[in-house]
Structures
1.
Amino acid sequence: MSPPFTINDLWAISPEMVLTTAAIILLILDFLLPPGRRAVVGYTGLLGIGATFAALGASAGVRAEAFSGMYLSDPFTLFFKTIFLLIAALIILISLNYLSVEGVDQGEYYALVLFATVGMMIMAASGDLLSLYIGLETMSLSIYVLAGFLRKDRRSNEAALKYLLMGAFSSGILLYGMTLLYGLSGSTNLKAISRTLAAQDLHNPALTLAMILLAAGFGFKIATVPFHMYLPDAYEGAPTSVTAFMSVGPKAAGFAVLLRVFLLAIPSLQGSWVQLFYVLSVLTMTVGNVVAIAQKNIKRMLAYSSIAHVGYLLIGLVAGSPLGISAILLYLLVYILMNVGAFAMVILLCRQGLRGDQIEDFSGLAQKSPLAAATMLIFLLSLAGIPPTGGFVAKFYVFGAAIKAGYVLLAVIAVVNTAISLFYYMRVAMVMYMREEPSPITALSPSRPLHWALAIAILGILIIGVYPGPFLGWAWVSLTGLL
């Protein structure tokens, strides 16, 4: 019989408790404040994130297993909780003015962002399949609502419906895989599953099927090919700030649980799942980059770009070494900054009646605002992996880990795909700097919080690109909670 929870268990989940309390306070504030003061809810949400950072810092040096091993507090968890809070803060900053432009300035939006972040934090800290699934559904249900937040917009409704249907389907597949693992091991605890399976026949077809179902379920969550079909439509139809959130939050959380499950629960099957992820990596980066070339909507282009980046991230998992896994963590940090920054630039062009989500909307931006054009160019260069940006450093370490592990062909394929990606990234740069036809957008968003988010993203990308050592060291230290 499991012992009852103690005060130490509550201390371990104090960041989640603080953030959940903040989200509830936002709902109450939204009810009390008049419609014209809803921005106060957003700023209060930022205070809640700050308080959660403080709670996270207080438990930073603690390594513990809470709630009978269902919840893990370790450096790996700390890393992901930190980047989840960074994501939430950036999304609130880029949303403060954008919601007013879209006519949906409602306080529950910020509460949903915080609830989704709580779900991500639970996912990263899960040491048990049950707590993992609870965190996954907490995150997913919040994002389903956010994707359809423009209730009078048919594209937003379509995005929410597609994301809901595919999310439910993938959750079912994931549950089948978890059920098989439970049936084979007699436990839902990841470490207990690992110990039990290590003594069993690894050629058991049921075990292989469980591995495939888990890979497919997580593949839907992080949008690997061929589980990516819903993503471009969902990204295009959802509000741009939500698209930015969807493009980084669920992917980072997906990789957190992917690493937990495959490296902690079924490391004995590494010889099999490495081959599976090798194929998925090649397919994902190639399809993402090739299809992105044909896109005229920048949100769809960035959707396929994000699919390609998932392919690059899987290279680190294929390598399977500490260098490869730490490179994944570094890549995720950079990916968050450059992807949120790119979508923030789309919001910068968004005005009443104009969404700024077509590539042609960036025409002549260098003449209208050289600073804005230079900012977008840095994001594009980082996405393409050009020095001295963080994107180059992230790809350098991921590709280097593959070569060091003996996967030279995979690294070559990744480099070729990087060259392909230059075409569609630089097409946006060409439109900004060389297109003479004026854009219908005559003014940029005056939102200061949006400008702060862009500044944070730019500084982060350039600092990591020039001085990556501390960030790679942080990622390396985080592995002590995983390997």
2.
Amino acid sequence: MNLAETTTDAPHVEIYNRIWLSIAERKLKPGTRLKEEQLAEIFSVSRARVRQALAALEHDGLVTLVPNRGAFVSQPSIEEARDIFFARRTIETQLVARLCEVVTPTAIARLEAHVTQEREARAAGDTKATVRLSGAFHLLIGELAGSPYLWDVLRDLLSRTSLIIVMYQTRSQTDCGPDEHAEIVAAIARGDADRAKHLMNHHIDHLEGQLDLEQDTQEPSDLRDLLA
């Protein structure tokens, strides 16, 4: 399950979820200013509620609060980008190894169905769905491996990865490929932990390898359109 898909009565959590999802789907670009008054109007809440959400997003590294200037979508540095990919390799290789030990036919069916959805979205040219499903595949592995704590850590790493890709991508298509995901699923289905770890490590290397760590950020866009 994804935090951005949960339901809650807390207004600041809804704001957090919507901003988180917009970052994960690469609609909110690094450097975009998050105006309190505009967010309060969009979500029909007080500015105090908006500040709660922005504080939580800052805690998770997705928003930077600048005194006397306001809140901005974070702009990861080159060093931070490398650290994010290092953390993902460390966590995700261990998650697939753990999943190999506890995997069930039901879990494999869910993973295979997810890869099928990815292929269908890509074939249809649905960029939004392709981006969403690419990240969701990794979260699904975390969920099936049975580690709520690591799932939560991974969720934040994936959002930061989205910011990094927007800032440093060198190609129009830099999402995780369903074919590589399918190979990982096949290794998990066989219970081959060493192969699954190797494939996941290679997969994350591939994603990082498509980045130009010297490219400038894109211009931010209007909040109202991005959070629609």
3.
Amino acid sequence: MNGDASGFDRDLEASPTIKVEIYDQAYTVRSDGDPEYLKHLAEYVDQRMREISSGTLTVDSRKVAILAALYIADELHQLRRAHEQADEQLAIRSVECSEMLDRLLKAPRNMSQPASAS
């Protein structure tokens, strides 16, 4: 999906519309992205909202949507943190491998010549 926060992006006027349903509400979304991906996202949000509504006493769909947004934001931040930690580990291992390779390349080579048979 594209567009600015104010919703006045002129590029969206030419974008196709995609119909999705979230929590028994139909929405028409303008997007030049993959329609199947957008539908998948809508299904994910719908699933999270239904999980939350089944575990709480609230029936207010707006409150359920906010709780679902918090749940999804938590997932996002946990995944970002895990990704950053994996990147840090990869950087550390890369430096270790580079240093090991440098040591191996700088090590004196034992150029033993075969003994000549006399």
